[in-house]
Amino acid sequence: MYENFYALQGKPFSLSPDPRFFYASKGHSRAMAYLEYGIHQEEGFIVITGDVGAGKTTLVRNLFQSVSGKPLVAAQLVSTQLDADDLLLSVCLAFGLQDLPSDKAEQLARLERFLLQTRASQQRALLVVDEVQNLSPKAVEELRMLSNFQGEDGPLLQSFLVGQPEFRRILRSDSMLQLRQRVIANYHLGPMDEPDTRAYIEYRLACVGWRQDPRFAEGIWPMIYQYTGGIPRRVNTFCDRLMLMGFLEERHELGPEQAQTVIDEMEHDLGAGGEGAPLPAEIDARVDREALTQIGSDIQELDKRLVRMERMLLFTYRQTKQILESVQVPEAEAELGPIEEPRRAQN
Length: 347
Known about the structure:
By secondary structure, this protein is an alpha/beta fold. It has helices at residues 2-5, 26-41, 56-66, 84-94, 104-120, 137-146, 166-172, 177-180, 194-207, 220-228, 232-248, 256-271, 280-283, 289-326, 331-334; strands at 45-50, 72-78, 124-130, 150-151, 154-155, 157-163, 183-189, 215-216, 253-254.
């Protein structure tokens, strides 16, 4: 919505993982280096962990983009509480195997044939398991067992395990001893620091043609970092909200005042409807001068938000009107009646 107002070529702070917006912060660069090291080693497990929203999935998408064109057959598996039997089937499907037998032994044989054919064609197979912390212990052991597939020149399958910090605890358990022995690199992706947070925001804006509109005042950067903690997903959410507010208020410079407004609104949204909110009947006997002052302040803030909503609705109305006007059919063409789409030839 604010893209047109700021002459941007796209949405800079989408929450969907997109390798086009991959920013190589200090932490992400190091995590990427571990993944590339693993590919070079051609064996063993690489483990990458990080908090929710740290950018792990975007890291994986960037990895897949970077290995495009290399002799590597890569597949991604996003685990959702898989048990051992489901995991094997899911791995086969991730590599594109179809018409799979229901028997597990036959599934293993089918996967092994695929891996041997892949190696025979001078390629290697790489499996990336995302959200690995959701796997059951038996499913994790099944992953380790798949690494036992061997060819004449080494393992037929290499696996990268990506997940949240709790997987580190799982990995330290006694039952994971054999898996730990096959982990050649283990890295935890932490939040960005303040300079990287600023550079991350500016990089994403530059990807969509930002030309200093809006301009960010120097005082806004510490506030963004402190509120988001340098977590990429939180940064995206906050900046998207900030840009929207700038559009609604028709601002071309955003500073601490606007950042604080967004912080207050987001905190209010998170706290709305929480426990302990007083009932109307309870308020009557407790209204005093301080409460009235607070009510007045809340009404003023509500007025500001309503004004922004009105501007947003007006902008949407104008955009819709322009679209409708651009697609109206001229009277001369309308008299010809509806035009049928050509039918596709049947195979």
